[in-house]
Design brief:
Layout lengths: L8 H8 L10 H30 L3 E6 L1 E3 L2 E5 L4 E3 L2 E12 L2 E10 L1 E6 L4 E5 L7 E4 L10 E5 L1
Amino acid sequence: MFSRKLSHPAVFRNYENTEKGGRKMSREKRLAKALACVLGLTLIVCTIASQLIYRRMLPRVRTVEAYWGDGGFVLPEDALYTGPQGTCVYCIEEKEERFGPKYLVKAVLVTVEARDESAGTVTVRGIYDDKWVYAAGANAPLADGAEVKPVP
């Protein structure tokens, strides 16, 4: 149907080496464009790698759930932390971010009502919702608002 070829090799070879207006591009300009592309790709790869490394360096915390017992919520003993304001537990909150979910801990002051040494649990007051997940057994010191990586 068409009488002429559309994919002649000389057309593409000359197109790659020309600027707007049909002038030939100098070797230095081609090298500068190639270098800019390489640097841009390197920046993208380094950004992604730094996010992955940052996520791997976060403190890991074991997650536990509270349940209602006699006179308060029951948690394992290692979910209690003693801070400058007193005894607290850390709630884990999930936030959606660009690179995936982000988990932050929030300190909640509690009062210990009873301890069960045989079961390794404590009954606490100060928690008003059993829908939260709590941090227990962190591999690094925690602070209010710190980002963590939950481990079941």
